[in-house]
DNA sequence: CCCCCAGCTGTATGTCATTCTGTTGACGAG
DNA sequence: CTCGTCAACAGAATGACATACAGCTGGGGG
């Protein structure tokens, strides 16, 4: 699908607030409510908009400690079992196969450093993992969504 | 604010799909539409729900290459000017001050590896940055929102 | 024992999403 | 040049839903 400039404006608006009406949304980009609705419908149908969701405050939910963990592996970890094992650890928010100093990079969020320790233990027990290296986040400047413009 | 089990169920549901009606949402947790509405209103008012937003497909928007970049610094980078400088680089999606092998960890997304190179150049020009170390993402297992349950 | 209040249900109303119909403008074929 | 086609849009209609309101209930404190 081709995403033109108006579409990007709509995406930017919806990233800010997905609850605004199509009338308001249309005014912001100079279109009628119906035309806006049609464009948003197509963006959803084509998968550019994956879903509309809520952004939660991690701290309020007991996930105030963030860290990145590098996993070294003795076997190839790019397969489904590894993915599933990592998915099942609730603290793991992202998992990536990387090129560089390790095999896998995961981002974790826990309530306390004790929970972080427990998560590291869980990561060690994932098949293939031989060692971990943890980078603790002291302060987050910002975490935002992909820039659309 | 105290977040009880029903609240967490609501949050989980809304993370999946923030467009469903309060009636449907209420059925999922065993409440009336009005009571559900009231709970969600409070979750928003208290900041547990920061906003409702859309999740976009990075690839469709020309951000198919992801990487993590470690920044080494000669000066303290925990202040506002650094934050602003990093915010202004569109490819930078996250920026964290870390404890460990470097001062700052940023996550970037670009269309191509050439754009990644351009972003690295931009990062080098941020005040205080002395060197960078880049970890390129080969494949993402998953990137999800904070687990609420 | 009674009062109070948070949290709930059911209902009413105004707003908005969604659909439909018709218009306009760009484009290609004849 | 003209006609036919199609995509994109505006405006109006209707049906669903958010939101507000009036009462009900059960538990905790005075």
TrEMBL record, chains A, B:
Keyword Flavoprotein tagged: no
Protein origin, superkingdom: Bacteria
Family matches, as InterPro entries: AsnC-type_HTH_dom (IPR000485), Dimeric_a/b-barrel (IPR011008), Tscrpt_reg_AsnC-like (IPR019888), Tscrpt_reg_AsnC/Lrp_C (IPR019887), WH-like_DNA-bd_sf (IPR036388), WH_DNA-bd_sf (IPR036390)
Signal peptide residue numbers: none
Keywords: DNA-binding, Transcription, Transcription regulation
A Gene Ontology term for the protein's cellular component: cytosol
An example Gene Ontology molecular-function term: sequence-specific DNA binding
Residue stretches in coiled coil: none
Positions of the HTH asnC-type domain: 3-64
GO biological process: response to amino acid
Keyword Transcription regulation carried by entry: yes
Pfam families recorded: AsnC_trans_reg, HTH_AsnC-type
Protein name from the UniProt record: Lrp/AsnC family transcriptional regulator
Organism: Kribbella antibiotica
